[in-house]
Amino acid sequence: MTTTSRRRPAALALALVAGLALAACSATADGATGGAHAATRTVDSEFGEVELPTDPQAALGFYTTDVDILATLGIPLASSQPVRDGYTGFPAFFPQDALADVDTFVNFPEYSYEAVMAAAPDLILNGLGYDEEAVQRLAEIAPTYSVNAFDGADWRDKFRTTAAALGRTEQADAWFARYDARVAEVRDQLDARGIHPRVAAIGWWNDQLQLSCYGVPCLVFADLGLDVAPLALQEDAALSLEQVDQLADVDVAVRSYEPGPAGEAADAETLQMLATSQVWSSLPFVAEDRYFRYDLEMDYGSPSGHAAFLEFLADSLLG
Fold it and tell me: In the chain, what are the domains?
């Protein structure tokens, strides 16, 4: 497998299209699903109208979260799907039955259009709509529904729209019903035990502590009615080690890490470095061991990741 740059000459795109056309002709001749007579429908997208198959049998998610969305919606997957650089498989909290026989290829941060074409998808879900070149090139490979899933908005709004476009509103509604019911259970348990902490997501990069209220953690904080530390609500809040006393009002904090040896080592190194600060070590959430870590893949906004973060937080607060 060769991972290619996002920026390849237009000749490569033409070659990919030609190759796919030959593959499509061969598939039709063999009587495979998804040939020239497959039923389609036209739907609106952020990038105009697109024609999509009504009954895809080999869908591909261009980004990891797209794979989870397809699986959650019950859409059959192509035999090969992408993962981020540094990963060889999908998170344990993804739908394992749907992924049981799926191979992987690295497709981020560099894109492998050859691997996408080799998967022979009859539908592509592309959540990286911020990359206009990818939107165009994927549409040349297979029918593609593109959405900018990383514009800072609640990913669940895009999920609903995507489900409707793919004819899977019922499946999306079922996920929301399960999630909302679980939120209600956790809130009742927190209320029954009088657990109402002030929370914050706190990471370390660029030699500073970084706080934010972007993405899945803050959405789940809100769903559970938790009190988010005011500093975390500020845009691009960052603190040096000399400023960590500003976190004295935080009762519970969370941080993401990348599973695996490299991620474990990086997380341990960060904690060791932070421990050199006596002020940091005396913060309530540090001294009382309430600085919990979660899988980085939960951050990016997908049904399984969002539900998994809820369970992680429930276990952290109630355990």
Answer: 10-167 (3.40.50.1980), 174-318 (3.40.50.1980)
